[in-house]
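Recap from last week: sequence in, structure out.
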Amino acid sequence: MKGNFFISQQEKERLFHTQLVKYGVKFEKAAKVAKILASGQSEEELTEEEQRLVKEACQQWLKGHKRHKQLVSLFEYVKR
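Predicted structure tokens:
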């Protein structure tokens, strides 16, 4: 079942911010990047600084997410 629902920009910011911080992006940087991501602007519309900030934060997020997945896998393996 596919649902159509509205999510406000503020809620998008909150979700992005939570995920970025959860996986290791510093709080202040995560807030800036979450605001940029939630704005819905295309990459071409962003300034070079905004592009750099988003790229940096997303790389940090990915690194933290991969580390988390490895730890969960290890925990599951040890638990057996």
